Amino acid sequence: GTPLAVLAAIGRAASNGAFIKGGTHLEALSSVDTVIFDKTGTLTEGAPQVVAVHPAPGTTEDQVLIAAATAEMYSEHPLGKAIVAQAQARRLPLGLPESFDYEPGRGLSAHVDGRLVQIGNTTLVPGARQSADSPTLASATAVHVATDGAFMGTIFLADTVRASACQCVADLRSMGLRVVMLTGDSHVTGRAVAAEVGIENVRTDLLPSDKLAAVDAERAAGHKVAMVGDGVNDAPALAHATVGIAMGSGTEVARQSADIVLISSDLADLTHAVRVARRARRIVM
Ligand code: ADP
Ligand code: MG
Fold this sequence. Notes:
By secondary structure, the protein is of the alpha/beta class. The protein folds into two domains: 4-45 and 161-284, 3-Layer(aba) Sandwich (Rossmann fold), CATH 3.40.50; 49-158, Calcium-transporting ATPase, cytoplasmic domain N (3-Layer(aba) Sandwich), CATH 3.40.1110.10. Helix content is 39%, strand content 24%. It is built from eleven helices and 13 strands. A seven-stranded mixed sheet has the order 1-13-12-11-2-9-10, with helices on both faces. Strands 3-8-7-6-5-4 form a six-stranded antiparallel sheet. Helix 1 runs antiparallel to helix 11. The protein starts with a helix and ends with a helix.
């Protein structure tokens, strides 16, 4: 059976917000030497807000938002939800897409009134001109919009770093752990957020398969890896990590793919769980 010390440790972690799905995951957590964080929704709150809309010449802000919000109407992605919320706040007339295709790590393609609307980064909307002219927009995420291949404009969204993120990164470091950030977001935005939370090891512009490959590479190099994420795009990486950790506020698929769930998405609960796991290991082994 499961040693009492392990059961007690799982109980202690649970009462501190970390739901550990079994004793083997507690042991895995105690052995981890590297913690990899996703950015959006993990180190940040994942509740971005539209801070600016830059329409292409001949297009209005509202036209960009109507096309984007209609296409994103069913979107579960925080960027999609924020775009819909902004359009609703402006009381713009929104329809529903006839069909839509989520392209993890890149954006979304949808049919609206028979026209193809594409929303996302420059890999999905290649005609886009990245136009973060003001310094306040440098750390904002740029989402480009095109209809039937014609560039309509760029929507800038800003996210807030979680209150618990900086302390968590500092604590994990002082416990001797390597800390890495992986993101599907752009170089500029990724770097800005990493600097804010104190992470130097950063990789940006990643597809879900790249995140997975990064976790596999760390493990192949002999590291024991905890992957912390929230999104559909993190699920494969969570499943391949030594221990996968999902944010409670994250997607269903991330929570299912993970071994541990941070119920209230408080990163301090992660630090605590690592301490509890290490203590239990000393008692049991
Ligand atoms: P992260 O790895 O930081 O959690 P994602 O992989 O979810 O980020 O997204 C990476 C990038 O893909 C975003 O910065 C955005 O440019 C684009 N993107 C993803 N989903 C959407 C969406 N639903 N609407 C618009 N853009 C999106
Ligand atoms: Mg995310």
